[in-house]
Amino acid sequence: MRILVVEDDVAIADEVALALRREGLTVDVVHNGREGLDSLLGGPYAAVVLDWMLPGMDGLSVCQAARRAQVAVPVLMLTARDQVSDRVAGLEAGADDYLVKPFDVRELIARVKALVRRDKASKSGVVRVADLELDSQSKRVTRDGREINLTPREFELLEALVRNAGRTLTREVILSNIWGADENTENAVNFHVTSLRKKVDSWHPVKLIHTVHGFGYTLKAGG
Q1: What pLDDT is recorded for position 175?
Q2: CATH 3.40.50.2300 domain extents, the chain
Q3: Considering the entire predicted model, what is its pTM?
Q4: pLDDT in tens, 62-118
Q5: Which residues pair with 30 in a beta bridge?
Q6: Which distant-in-sequence residues (6+ apart) come within 8 Å of 163 by Cβ?
Q7: Are 2 and 45 in contact (CB under 8 A)?
Q8: Rg, C-alpha atoms of the chain
């Protein structure tokens, strides 16, 4: 697997690249945003580790430009910014995960591997989390062997949560990236989440859909 690291701090870039190579991965390293975007467009990569603060073109702009060009590579954004608003901005720009500096390189490796696993799973029609199974081709959902009937909106929401299991999706991301202009209020998101919970969780002892207060929603087994 080939990973791209875009980081202007040479010491951090070298540490990350070395750790990834020790995992048996092929790593390309560039040190500014323009080279990062050119590399992404030339791809393909299994994932990219992208710093926010880059010379010439910042990571946010690189991510946005790559998404506009239909580059679907998983992106792990690195930054010293740790406010909720910053995390939201990174996710809305198209990042798939967000890691605040300083970080333990072992966590970075784990996050990169998780992104690659999720990306591979997303290319398959059937995705499973715990005892929940979703088939994007047949639009069929089962939990613990029991079939669950969903509306189209509920299915879209559940599919997004399942394919991003363990990650938090903000209401803004759900509205802009999943439903677009068809739904335009956070109340609509809350309504569909409540309805989805009744069908997926209310009857089961293990809850999968969780609220991340002040941020959004996540799907994971356990509390």
Answers
A1: 76
A2: 2-122
A3: 0.58
A4: 999 988 887 888 999 998 887 888 888 888 888 889 899 999 999 999 999 988 887
A5: 6
A6: 118, 121, 122, 127
A7: yes
A8: 18
Residues written for the chain: 223
The two structure tokens encoding residue 57: 């073109």
Which residues of the chain form CATH 1.10.10.10? 126-219
Q: Which CATH architecture has domain 2-122?
A: 3-Layer(aba) Sandwich (3.40)
Reported in sequence order, the residue ranges of the chain that DSSP labels E, i.e. its strands, are 2-6, 26-30, 47-51, 75-79, 97-100, 126-129, 132-135, 140-143, 146-148, 168-170, 209-212, 216-219
Residue 86 amino acid letter? D
CATH topology of domain 126-219: Arc Repressor Mutant, subunit A (1.10.10)
Peptide bond into 205 cis (omega under 30): no
Question: What is the signed CA dihedral for 183, 208, 130, 84, rounded to 10 degrees?
Answer: 70
